[in-house]
Design a protein that fits this description.
The complex is a heterodimer of chains A (about 110) and B (about 110). Chain A is about 0% helix and about 45% strand. With about 110 residues, chain A is mainly β. Chain A is globular and about 40 Å long. By secondary structure, chain B is mostly beta strands. The radius of gyration of chain B is 13 Å and the shape is globular. Helix content of chain B is about 0%, strand content about 60%. The chains are: A mainly beta (about 110), B mainly beta (about 110). Chains A and B meet through strand 4, strand 5, strand 8 and strand 9 of A and strand 4, strand 5, strand 9 and strand 10 of B.
Chain lengths: ~110, ~110
């Protein structure tokens, strides 16, 4: 597509429920990132996918968080047994190795855990 | 702790004035980038400066990089109300150059 698409744009869930956030990167972009941004804070790196290489999961905060990227395109970030501290905007970004690692961001998914 | 730290955390100036934001980082970098964020949503890339460059311009933006001090500055000249946003620096580390590490951001407010 023309840009990075994320869904849902807003999600309200109850504590303890699982949520899935989806990212559809720009066609042809080989690298995909997930970041978390709490209210008024900076971006916290979560996970990075590059082509067929093993993902860099070093930023995932706990084993409740997981992500996958199917067919080198769409990615899903899953948060199990959500907690209130998971409330944040989850941002997805992609880039192509054709140029420098300049990221194109999606609009984000705002997650609120009650 | 964060690789990039912006300073100040918040800046409020009058329209037409220049705005300067600073970024410091800890480890050696491949490049440093500045992004802008409106309304807490997606970020937009503004400018990239490589580790072997000292200064770069793009329109009303001027970025400097001092690798000896591990710092960068973003200057916005002749500010406009539409420049009101949060500005983030992001560093691409030499090892794992693909991973961009963002700072906490500077909240810039331009008063009409």
């Amino acid at each position: 597509g023309a840009g990075v698409s994320q869904s849902p744009s807003n999600k309200v869930t109850e504590k303890g429920k699982d949520v899935e956030l989806r990212c559809d990167p720009i066609s042809g972009h080989t690298a995909l990132y997930w970041y978390r941004q709490r209210l008024g804070q900076g971006l916290e790196f979560l996970i990075y996918f590059q082509g067929n290489s093993a993902p860099d999961k070093s930023g995932l905060p706990s084993d409740r968080f997981s992500a996958e990227r199917t067919g080198g395109s769409v990615s899903t970030l899953t948060i199990q047994r959500t907690q209130q501290e998971d409330s944040a905007v989850y941002l997805c970004a992609s880039w192509t190795r054709a140029g420098a690692n300049v990221l194109t961001f999606g609009a984000g998914s705002r997650l609120t855990v009650l | 702790s964060q690789q990039g730290e912006e300073d100040p955390q918040a800046l409020s100036i009058q329209e037409g004035e220049n705005a300067t934001m600073n970024c410091s980082y800890k480890t050696s970098i491949n490049n440093l980038q500045w992004y802008r964020q409106n309304s807490g949503r997606g970020l937009v890339h503004l400018i990239l400066i490589r580790s072997n460059e000292r200064e770069k311009h793009s329109g009303r933006l001027r970025v400097t990089l001092d690798t000896s001090k591990k710092s960068s500055s973003l200057l916005i000249t002749a500010s406009r109300a539409a420049d009101t946003a949060s500005y983030f620096c992001a560093t691409a580390l030499i090892q794992g150059a693909q991973k961009l590490v963002f700072g906490q951001g500077t909240r810039l407010t331009i008063n009409p």
